[in-house]
């Protein structure tokens, strides 16, 4: 049985859900995977920070209604966030980065990851920023320090599309992908097919909590663009920055345009895609496309996400699943920790057996 | 660079496609995965057998039109099959079992696997028989002999659903699945939705080579039943034999019934499924079901296959891809060999480094 001490950076919905999973699922993880999780530190801009080397009862974290600076009420707690000290000094094996995604330069999350790796901590993150802007640098740094860096939740929350493509499709000749990677815009398109204007559909998404007050990132494709960059770099060996990818959203589409498409047996979908051409060059884009009903992404409805991978030996293989959700995204962190655990077992267990 | 010597048992479409992939893709596999494949033996009821310790040029195997007993024309070749000698004595690291699937008791493929494992060979197979009837016994035997046993291609050809569910969904609380696991019957249902009778749709499938002269296994659900047994045992820990699973096919359905369903926003699909109930008991069945259009399997058309996995933390996650095809199924064997290779690296490399 391996125990991993976790330092949680950010305590919004995702890391709170992770704490709930630690509370609810540790016994199942022990039985199924042979690992135990122990939260030893949390740092959050709003609640403050707490370090507790023997571990913090996850129920104390999730069942208490903390106010601003409220972590000061915990043993080892302070009212200020202090991410740097927590990352560098808390006795954690794994730093869990789940702060906000900055869409301009990925900071301060990139710095958080860098600090953690340089301090010899594995890093798991659901944050698109560090992965879209600095995956290459951070991977080299992690390799140099002999630690793991995993980010399954940066695309499609806990639906394990990165690991599916990288591991289980290995050797199949992956040369491109097309995805519906933003549930908010897909929900809005569905409502527009039912006759609502873009503005009315957006309001309904906002009322349901599916769209933020400023919906730009979702409806103009910026969120999808980060995911396309992550996948193109990770799966096709591209070296894109977000500014390299052409991006067009859905706000200019009209119910009339969607109705015309329906009459032609087609549906408009916001598609993020990349493909490698015969000369090895990789082309990526985010744009609404009118796709035929037989297309594997045409039946993806509501807030669901999906990616079709194009491969030489299997043709098209599609994974459909949740693209958001607190618990779903927290599961991505669990799956990342499992991946790190299994890499560790592979690296150490046989030698111990041989000794 | 690791080189694996292969003995191919059966030289029908799948192992012939594997030989083609060895010929075409060895360079890519070397570069991408760090392994090389070398065919050292083939045995087939029709063509005979050949053993060649230094390897057989895969193009000689795939580009020659052999007649019955034709392997006798090769160096080290004989006109009779001699599976037992080839499996036990050829200098292979991996035995590739791709003979016919016997739906009554899984033989002689089970015996082939047993011989191979007892001779210290890894086994990869696309054959449903050994997996549906004897996975438990063969896994114990493989563990005892320290060899790998992989069978991704026994369900949905090369679409890696077994590895997806077992590995990348680990820890998600998988508790059931529903699948469209037979492309022939799904193709026939599509034609019946377009107004054909069952008999006319079946004839069209036969003319296209999608259905065999005796279509019983496809249209009465027997093929799906083997796959449900494999998945339920592998993913849910059931201990089913094929006779334990209730099985109903599609031959009794009428275009009228499909038309009624369409009027209700539903489609008839042949669904193979299993789920674990609250008390831990596993229920499995194969039957046509009328599912609503929003169901993740409702949009699966033609000969395509799909499985929706039900999980506690992610809800439903669906993988859609090819369910048949020579190259697609041969890729399953490649993916199995990669899995064995990676397990071997994990087991040996760190110790060598430590030494």
Strand order of the largest sheet of chain A: 4-3-2-1-5-6-7
Our count of helices of chain A gives 12
Biggest chain contact: A-B, 47 and 47 residues
What is the typical, i.e. mean, pLDDT of chain A? 95
Structure notes:
2 copies of one chain form a homodimer. Chain A is an alpha/beta fold and 355 residues long. Helices cover 42% and strands 22% of the residues of chain A. In chain A, strands 4-3-2-1-5-6-7 form a 7-stranded mixed sheet, with helices on both faces. In chain A, strands 9-11-10-8-12-13 form a 6-stranded mixed sheet. In chain A, strand 1, helix 1 (13-33) and strand 2 form a beta-alpha-beta unit. In chain A, helix 1 packs parallel to helix 12 (326-354), helix 4 (109-118) runs parallel beside helix 5 (128-145) and helix 5 packs parallel to helix 10 (222-236). The two termini of chain A are 19 Å apart. Residues 348-355 of chain A have low confidence and may be disordered. Chains A and B meet through helix 1, helix 6, strand 13 and helix 12 of A and helix 1, helix 6, strand 13 and helix 12 of B. Strand 13 of chain A pairs antiparallel with strand 13 (315-321) of chain B, so a sheet runs across the interface.
């Amino acid at each position: 049985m391996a125990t991993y001490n976790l330092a949680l950076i950010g305590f919004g919905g995702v890391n709170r859900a992770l704490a709930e999973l630690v509370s609810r699922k540790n016994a199942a993880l022990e039985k199924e995977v042979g690992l135990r999780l122990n939260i030893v530190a949390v740092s959050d801009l709003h609640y403050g920070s707490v370090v507790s080397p023997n571990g913090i009862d996850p129920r104390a974290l999730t069942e208490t209604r903390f106010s601003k600076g409220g972590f000061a009420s915990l043993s080892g707690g302070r009212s200020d966030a202090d991410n740097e000290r927590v990352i560098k000094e808390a006795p954690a094996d794994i730093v869990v980065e789940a702060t906000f995604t900055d869409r301009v330069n990925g900071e301060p999350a990139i710095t958080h990851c860098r600090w953690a790796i340089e301090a010899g901590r594995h890093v798991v993150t659901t944050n698109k920023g560090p992965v879209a802007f600095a995956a290459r640098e951070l991977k080299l740094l992690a390799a140099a320090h002999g630690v793991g860096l995993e980010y399954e939740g940066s695309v499609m929350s806990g639906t394990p599309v990165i690991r599916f493509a990288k591991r289980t499709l290995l050797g199949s000749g992956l040369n491109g992908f097309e995805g519906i990677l933003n549930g908010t815009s897909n929900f809005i398109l569905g409502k527009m097919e039912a006759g609502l204007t873009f503005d009315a559909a957006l309001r309904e998404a906002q009322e349901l909590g599916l769209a933020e007050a400023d919906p730009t990132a979702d409806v103009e494709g910026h969120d999808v663009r980060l995911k396309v960059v992550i996948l193109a770099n990770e799966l096709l060996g591209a070296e894109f920055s977000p500014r390299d990818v052409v991006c067009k959203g859905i706000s200019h589409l009209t119910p009339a345009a969607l109705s015309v498409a329906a009459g032609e047996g087609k549906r408009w979908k916001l598609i993020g895609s990349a493909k490698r051409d015969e000369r090895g060059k990789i082309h990526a884009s985010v744009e609404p496309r009118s796709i035929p009903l037989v297309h594997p992404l045409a039946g993806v409805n509501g807030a669901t996400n999906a990616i079709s991978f194009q491969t030489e030996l299997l043709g098209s293989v599609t994974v459909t699943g949740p693209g958001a959700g607190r618990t779903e995204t927290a599961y991505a962190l669990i799956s990342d920790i499992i991946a790190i655990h299994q890499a560790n077992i592979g690296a150490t267990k046989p030698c111990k057996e041989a000794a």
